[in-house]
Amino acid sequence: MIRFKVFLPVFALCVLVFWFFSLRFDAWLARSIESGISSLTQTKTDVRRLQTRFFPPKLQIAGLELASRSEPFKNVIEFEEILMEIELWPLLSRRLVIREFSIRGVDWGTDRKTSGRLVRPERSPSWLSPWVTQAMGVLREEFEELPVARLADFRIPENPQEILNLLSLESESAFREAGAKFEDAETRWRGRFSELRDLRDYQRFTGQFREATQDIPRDPQGIAERLRLVQSSIDFFQSERARVSGLISELQEAADELDGTYRAAQSAFRTDLERAKAQISLDQLRVDNLSRLIFGAHWLDRAEAVIQYQQLLRRALAWRASEQRPNRQVRPRQRGRVVQIFSPKAEPGFVWEFSEFSVRGLEREEGDRVSQSYELRVQGVNSSPKLYGKPTEIEVLGRFRESFLSSAKLELFFDYTTESLKDRYELSAENLKASLIPVGVSPVFPLAIREGSVSVRTGFHRVGESLSWVNRLEFSGVSWDLREVPQVGAVIPSLSRILESVGRFWLELRFEILDGKLRFLVSSDLDELIKQGVFRELEQQLQAFYRRLERNLGERVARVRDHAETQKKEFEREIVQEIQNRERLLRSRLEEAEKAKQRLEREARAQADRLREGVEDRVRGAGEDLLRRLPR
Amino acid sequence: MIFLLQSFFRLLRLLNSETKPSQLAAGFCAGMVFGFIPFFSLTSLSLFLLVCLFRVNLTAFFLSSALFSLMAWGLDPVFDRLGFWLLVELPILTAFWADLFRQPLLPFFQLNNTLYLGSLVLGLVLSLPVFVGLIFLIRAYRKRWREKIKTSSWFKALKTSKIYSLYQKFRALEARWGQISS
Questions:
Q1: What's the pTM?
Q2: Cβ separation B87–A341 shorter than 8 A
C-alpha cells in the first residue's frame, strides 16, 4: 500500500530542510529582520552577524545598525549585541515566549561605511485611525483660522482719514436729522403761539384793572362797578394762563423728544468713534494666547503620530471579549476570516514576561569612556492582554554625557485586560537642547531658539475613550534666533524686542477629549509677558492716534453738528423762553389784579363800616332824643 | 485545446487501463480536497506528501486538483460561510476548537481561518460519497460503456479530425522526448 519509491524524494526534502535550517536560516533571518525594520523605520538597517540555536532556542544579533534618515553616512543607533532566549515548547503551538532578552552596548550617531539612504515611494500607512486623522484635521483648521497675517499687517496709520473713509459714518446724518427737527419744531411752535391772545390785550386788561384802583368812588355802586372790571381782567388772565400752561406741558414733551434726537446724534458720534477705534485695536491681534500660535502648530504632527500609534496599539492588542468565556473574536483577512477563540486555558501567541538589564554606550574615539547608559525594565509584554491577564509595564532610563540631553525616563503602562482600557505614558527629559523645540510661524514670524535648555514632562493618560495628555516644558537660558524675522508692521518688531529679553519661561501643551471632541490648549507665562510688552509699546502710539481720530471725526461732522446746536439754542431761546416769559408775565399780572381786587374789596368793607357806624350813630341820637322827650 | 484533448484522452486511458477503481477514486478525491484548500498552506503540503506516500493514482489526483482548484475560486464564499458556521455559529464545537488550537503544531495549519477550515471540511465530507460513487461509475463504465464509446460515430469522427492528428504528433514528440531524457 505504501509507495516506497516516494521515500527517496521525501528524504531528499528532509535533507534540504535540514540544510536550510543549519546553513542558510541565519542569513535568511538576518535579511528578513533588516527588511522588516527598514520598512518600519524607512531607513536602511544592517545586521552584521546573526546566530540562531534551536536546542535551546536562542537568537544572537551582533551589530544591528539603523541608518539615519537625514544623514546617510551616520547611524541613528547601533546595538553591539542583542541576545534573546526563547522557550521551545510554546513555539510548536505557534507561541513566542521570550525567556531572556538583553542588549549589550549601544551607540548613537556612529559612522557608516555605506550610504543608508532608502529611496521608497511615500505611502500613506493603512493603519491610520480615521478618528485621529479627522480630529487632527479639525485642530489644523482651527490653526488656519488664527489671525497670523494680522501680526505682520498690523500698523497704526498716520492719517486717520484712511480709517474714517472706510466707515459709513452715522453721526453725520444723525446731527443733520436733529438740526432739521429743531427747525421744524420752531416753525410749528411759532404757529401754536397764535392760539394765545395778543400782548396788546394784556396791556388793555392791565390798564383796566389799574385804572379801577385809582380814584375809588365813595358810593357802593361805584365800587361794585370797579370790582366787576377787575374781576373781568382776572378772568382774562386766568384763562390765558391756563392756555399757556397747556402749551408748556405740550412743549415739554416736544422738547424731551428733540433732546432725545440730539442725544442720539451725540451717541452716534461716540459710536462712530468707537467703530473707528476698533479698526486699529490691539484686541484684534488676539495676543492673549500667542504661545499657541508660535509653538502649537509644530506639535500637531508629533501629537498626531503619538495618538495614531497609541490607537494602533489598542487596535492590535485590545481585543474585546465579553465576560462569558470562551469567546470568539473574528478578524477579516485578505482571504477568509480568522477566528480567535478565547478560553480559560488559552494563552497569548507572544509573551515577553520580564527583562531587566542595563547597557552602556562607549565613546569610540576615547577608548572606554562611557558616553551613555540605559536601564531597561520590561514586564508582561504580550500579544493578547486579555488572555495574558496582566498589564504591561516598560521603563527605560537613559543618561547621556555631552549629548543633546542629560537624561530621559520613559514609563509605559497599558492595561488592556478589562473592558476599560487604560494607557499611561510618562516621559521626562532633563537638559534637552532648547534648539530642538520647533517654534515660530513661517513666514510671518520665523523665529528659532539658538541656545538654552529645556526640561520636559509628558503625561499621556487614556482611560476608555477619555484622553488627557499634558506636556510641560520649562525653558531656561534661552536666546532667540530672530535673524529671519521680517521687521514689518508694528507688532512683529515689538514681539522681537520682547522675546529678546525673555530667557526663562514655561510652556504647557494639553490635549484632551471634551464632549467627544479633541481639544488642544496651549498656555505659557510668555503670553502675559508678550501681551503686556506689546500693549506697553503700542498703547502710547495708539492713544495719540485715537486723539487724532477723534479730532478728525469731530471736524468731519462739525458743520452739521454746529447747525444742530444752533437750531437747538434758537428753539430754546425763541420758543421755550418766549412761552416761559409769557407765563411769568401772566403770573405777575394775575397777582397784580388779585391785589387790586383785594384793595377794592377792602375799600368797600371800610365804606360799609363807615355807613353802618353813621346809621348806628343817627339811630342812637334819635333814640336818645326820643327818650328825652318822653314824660318822666 | 491540445491540453484539453490531452486531459480528455488521459482520462480515457486511465479509465480503460487496469488501474484499480479504488486507486483512481482515491486519487480523484485527494485531488478534490487538494484543489479546494488554499495552495500555499501546511495542510496542502501535508496532503501532497500523503498522496505521494500512498498508492493512489497521481494522474487522477492532478487532474481533479486542477479541476477543483478552478471550482474553488467560485466556492470561496461557501467555504468562508461553512468555516464561520463551524467556528463561530456552532457553540458546541467552541471548546473543541479552543483545545485543538492549543495543541502543538496544529496552529500552523491555520484551521482557525474560515476559508481553510471550510474548504477542508467540505472536501473531506464530499470525499466519501464521491469515492463510493466513482468506484461504482468506473466499474459500470468498464463493464457497459467502454466498447460503446469506442465504436460510437462521434468518437470515430474525433479520431479522424485534424485536431486529433495534431495531438498524435504532439504525443509522438512527447514520447521521443521521454526516450531522450531517460
A1: 0.57
A2: yes
